[in-house]
Amino acid sequence: MAEAADSQGMTPSPARRWLRRTAALLVGAPLFAGLLSATAAPAAHAATDAVSGQSVQVTLDSVAPQAPVKSDTLTISGTVTNNGKQAVTSAHVGLRVGQKLSGRSAIDEAARHSASPSASDGAELSDGPTAKFAKLDAGVSQDFTLSVPVSKLGLGDDGVYQLGVSLSGQSANQHYDQMLGIQHTLLPWQPDAVEGKKNQLTFLWPLISSSHLTAQTGSDAQQTPVFADDSLARDIGPGGRLEQMVSLGKQLPVTWVIDPDLLATVDAMTRNYKIKVGDTLVNGTSQDVAKAWLSQLEAAVQGEKVVALPFADPDLASLAHHGRDVPGSLGHLQTATEVAQKTIDTILHVTPSVDYAWPVDGAVDPSIVDVATSAGAHNVIARSDSLRDGALAYTPTAARPIGGGANAIVADARLSTAFQGDMSMANNSALAVQEFLAQTLATTLQDTDKQRSIVVAPQRMPTVSQAQTMATALHALDPQRWTQPLVDLGAASAAKPDPLATTRVPGTNAYPDALRQQELPLDAFQDMKDTQGTLERFKVILTAPDRVVTPFGNAINREMSTSWRGDSGGAQNYRSGVQLYLDGLADQVHLIQKSTATMSGRSATIAVTVQNKLVQGVDHLVLRIQPKSPTRLQLGDDGDAVGEQPVKVDGDRSQSVKFTAIANANGPVPVTARLYTQDGTPYGEPMEFTVQVSEITPTVMLVIAGGVLLLVLAGIRMYTHRKRSMAREESEGDDDPGQSNGSADADPGQPSDPTPDTGPESGATPGPGEKVDH
């Protein structure tokens, strides 16, 4: 009647106008609230009541079965949490079936807004399952389970449908039912096998870890390895990350992608090993765990496709963007590739393929491809968000030629990144599985006339929960209703390329900045070059160089591992530790310092001692000493300015090397001694000492010469005196009266006559003024 009165131009009374407005507000309030709820923007919680300010979060713990058929009963379990400040009453959880999503982009959009209301949510199933809660207090969580026959969902054609699990109820301010929270998930609907060709799916299963071994080894014959910590024992132990990767992977149709360094490290744990704890070393005790893990892995890979990455999984992008500017860096990649096959063959007794390179996140540019293929790999595992096929309405086969005899194996980016994030949260894990299945179905339904080969390359080091989620998703594909497994990556690489798929490698400028910021810098490769140089100089003097070359060569490979991304400080510390330890070993062969050598004569022997504290002997060394004043001090019989002697010292011994020196002048003469390798390369630091020459002076020589001359003259005079005495005695005997022939003419009192020498010759004493040196 009010409408009739208005239409006739009558003016209603104020009381009647008030009643009409109040009634309109009461009738329109629920509609207005629903409109706000339906158009609300994504928020931190599952949904927000725009009128009362309350919010309720809905999470899903499981969806079973993940890909149902008509005869199944769909069961969804989860939790509702009142994150608001007021209680929610008369609450219930219901199920909403949305429209079929048209293609992969629609699936992406739905996944991005999985916790936001949508206009396509549809009405709650009137005869569907519900879970009721009389009251949901603020901050309280309640579990729920919904079960409904699939036949009641009203699903139509094959495809991917969006399901919404919502909580509706009343608040203290709003006494009417409204949707307070919702969580969407995806339901792949393909009850029967695809009528046409199914896509083939190759899933890479990576066994990769960070670096655990240091360059340090024991001095015993076994070279006991030293571990940086004991984290690897936890990873390969029961329930650990790598133990789960093996336990789950052996039940799945996957291609194993293995870093040989991981195998070599675990193999080292099967024997005696040490663990660094601060500045001390303690014995490792996980030998049985290591043996069990290797045995389990060996059994799992028998008869399966195994791809070996270069040893220690080198960062190809860092090498391409920085390492190529440092001479010798690419040589490490070649060495790492050569040792890969031998390592896996020796430990697992399978022959792996070494024909694959895997840049970080499959991001490539021409320089990365060049480096990746420089060590002999012909297949580069890229990703579709790097090599984009924007003009195609379908996902092409993974393999394609990219020039220079190389192929790109382009992994699907959506599928490869589906399991990143915190999969330990049940809601995240359940949604990831459903999204993965939905994307695989949508990929097949794009074109069932073409059988395409799709490759999935997940993150390099999945967590335990990520690995478990991946395994759940792969097991959901076991019925093979829309995919079939293609375990062999080799077969995927050999698949006929799609002629419309892009083969153009993006330019260097297209490489993602986020990845570039995580790369090893130029200084890192310079550090590696310095360490390699030290190693080259050190190994040539060793009698058993393999004891040093192998552990340090592996350590340098580990310095360029992809595992250092995001840990620049750890990478720097590791490089510094390797260099310091190598320097310490090289310094074990050195000259023992001496200060002064005294030389008391024109010619003497100078000794310099070489000490070898290593357990192995050293050879091929030359000790060279050189006076700074070669005119004052010469070396050797030929008077050379430099003296050289070959050096060979047994392990834990010292060797004294002697040089003949000839002095030409008195006083101190500085001398430099240094070791060299046989090719003339300096080894170690020089050692300086002083030779103090105390040679006999010319004055002293004159004094001595004068003394000798006096002795000679005294001897001559004594001899002459003796001869005269003997002659006189003979003369006196002839003048005696008792002699028949004596002479009487001589005057016996003649003063000039000498007195008779009556003493013996040996007892004669020198006359006045004579000296005799005894």
Automatic annotation (TrEMBL):
Gene3D superfamilies per UniProt: Immunoglobulins
Transmembrane segments: 700-719
Coiled-coil zones: none
InterPro entries in the cross-refs: DUF6049, Ig-like_fold
Pfam family, one: DUF6049
Segment forming the signal sequence: 1-46
Region: Disordered, residue numbers: 724-774
Keywords from the named record: Membrane, Signal, Transmembrane, Transmembrane helix
Source taxon at top rank: Bacteria
The name this protein goes by in its record: Secreted protein
